[in-house]
Automatic annotation (TrEMBL):
Signal peptide: none annotated. SMART domains: UDPG_MGDP_dh_C. This is UDP-glucose 6-dehydrogenase. Its EC number is 1.1.1.22. It comes from Tessaracoccus flavus. GO terms for biological process: polysaccharide biosynthetic process; UDP-glucuronate biosynthetic process. The keyword DNA-binding does not apply. One of its GO terms (molecular function) is UDP-glucose 6-dehydrogenase activity. Pathway: Nucleotide-sugar biosynthesis; UDP-alpha-D-glucuronate biosynthesis; UDP-alpha-D-glucuronate from UDP-alpha-D-glucose: step 1/1. The lineage of its organism: Bacteria, Bacillati, Actinomycetota, Actinomycetes, Propionibacteriales. Belongs to the UDP-glucose/GDP-mannose dehydrogenase family.
Amino acid sequence: MRISVIGCGYLGAVHAACMAELGHEVIGVDVDPAKIEYLRRGEAPFFEPGLPELLESAMATGRLRFEEAPALEELADVNVHFIAVGTPQKDDTGAADLTYVTSAVALLLEAIPEGSHPVVVGKSTVPVGTAEALAEILEARGITLVWNPEFLREGFAVQDTLSPDRIVYGVSNDPEHAQRGRAALDEVYASLLASGIPQIVTTYPTAELVKVAANSFLATKISFINAMAELCEATGGDVADLAEAIGHDDRIGKKFLRAGVGFGGGCLPKDIRAFMARAEELGVADAVAFLNEVDAINLRRRDRVVDLATKALDGDVTGRRITVLGAAFKPNSDDVRDSPALDVARRLADMGAAVTVTDPEALPTVRRVAPGLPLEPDTQVALEGADLVVLLTEWREYVDLDPASVRTLVARPVLIDGRNAIDPAHWREAGWTYTGLGRPAAP
Ligand code: UDX
């Protein structure tokens, strides 16, 4: 199949490389010349394990290339166009900004010759109702639309694209377009479907809702356990033991029950806010009002870390040296969008603390978005002379730190583990004052 991917950001670059890996001929298009330059060199413009290798091998086969938009001629004879542009949060209402989706559709309408009937596939996360509106415009030109949400996780994006948990198609109410769309995507994903990956074929609104419902559920699970952490803090309970105990019930499951400083990143926070904004527009705000609480619990965990840090420094952080381990919203990522770690670091710095932030991958991004924040790439140097260490992103190298040798670097052996990622007993034995979230103080 000849495939285009419009938008070569996180989702699009990974999707383009993976489609070439499946054997298709792929052209990735983006309006940002810098991004295209990177990708043409076989480099990813962001940190994603496995992607540079995949880009390099796909480009070596000649099946993958990248062009700066509009690239009208290159798009003219494509069978399936994927839209993978961003839908950022628009304003304080949290609604999704659809500008890039609208311009991608406009670009395709210009590029697709009259009388040609390719299939357009939406992958971006959009407010429910968007696909139906776009289908009306596209079908008027004989072009078929399928909505095919993406569930990839950063850090596992290649693996999640090449062996997803499920493949969802939202198809047109018009049987002919539905049939054509399904057949084209079945051909694109033939090898995945042959391996038995579950396929759900449904309507446009259902497909759009599947994506936000999945992310809302995941966010709710995290906030649920973080709410239990608040209860544990008030009662002396231990949220890690509690999560393990309830997780043994298969109906609950162990995953996504790690209490800590909460969720961040480019998806969960934005998606739940956009979902609430859309539900409000639809007059069904009550149905998702609980997501307000999910968001509020999540943000309260950041306050909790700031409070614990202040308490650990005898009520005043001014001038005190705080080493923040981690800036990315999670390990194996250089993404700091809505990162709890970066938020806490900034707040402590704003309160007058002498904060030093370290992270194995995210510092170049932090330098751009938080220019005033002192950064130190070397973990050992960052730890020197610290009055307090706060672990906020559970990179392997931080979890594996040896408490005895770190103790020789710091001024005071006091640690707040904002991810409940390290063994309290091990650190306490080495003389540290350890505080987790939702975990009891030392016996
Ligand atoms: C998420 C969804 O998992 C993915 O399916 C969707 O397509 C995009 O959004 P991602 O944003 O890459 O993926 O990160 P994820 O691994 O889900 O983690 C999100 C946040 O939740 C991180 O900040 C992480 O630290 C936090 N988290 C996760 C917890 O605090 N506790 C947990 O138990 C799990």
